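Format notes (please read before filing issues)

Several people have asked whether sequences and structure tokens are stored in separate files. They are not. Every record keeps both together, in the order shown below: the sequence lines, then the token lines. Line labels are part of the format and must not be stripped during preprocessing.
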Amino acid sequence: MVNPLKRLIQSRRGRHSGKFDRKLLKKNDIHLLILDERWNGLFKDTDKTVEILECEKKIRELLKREASLTSELKELNHRKKVCMDTIIKLTSDVFDKNDEQAKEKMHSCEKEIKYINKRVKEIEEELEISPDKLKDANLELLEHTVNTVYFKMRRNQKRYKQLEKLIEETSQKLKEYTEEMEALCQDDTDVYSYFHDLLGGEELEKLDKEYFGESFTALRHDKSADR
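Then the structure lines:
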């Protein structure tokens, strides 16, 4: 099976500046992102865009609406049952005793049942399309997430490789500089040792201070301290 995200990236790459094609993921069961801890974790170091915040709000409102409709539907079904039970209890008074008060109450219950049936139909129709609305909003959120987070990660990966190369080059340069410094230090030590034995330490120190302002031994000590 082809990875849907891979297809998405290939499609995007082909279009360069094209929009995210949600049809590629339409058939996939993408869980609600806002309820996913890992999705929320993507934004620890990345700010959510206005589009992402708007999609989040839209999904939360759809979920809230769905919960409200479900609760209302449950309450309506309960009210309908109460009305039907009442009508059954009133049947004898209405038809056998011709009780006007019972007739009025039965009529009221029938009227309410008619309203309930109408409202239940409206709610069921809205609840029927609610999953598709949530899916579309979720795919829109995925679109903005991919554009914001995933492609940022890919750009970061490119920079990571650049830095890795720079570190490798710098490490090589540092190694070369260190080897050169150690070679110079050894050469200088050999030269100083020769003239120290030839002229004597005291005379050599006078020569250093006169022409260089400091003795070679002091300079070498400073370099050793720096290292």
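For reference, the curators noted about this record: The mean pLDDT is 85. Helices lie at 4-15, 37-41, 50-96, 100-199, 201-211, 216-226.
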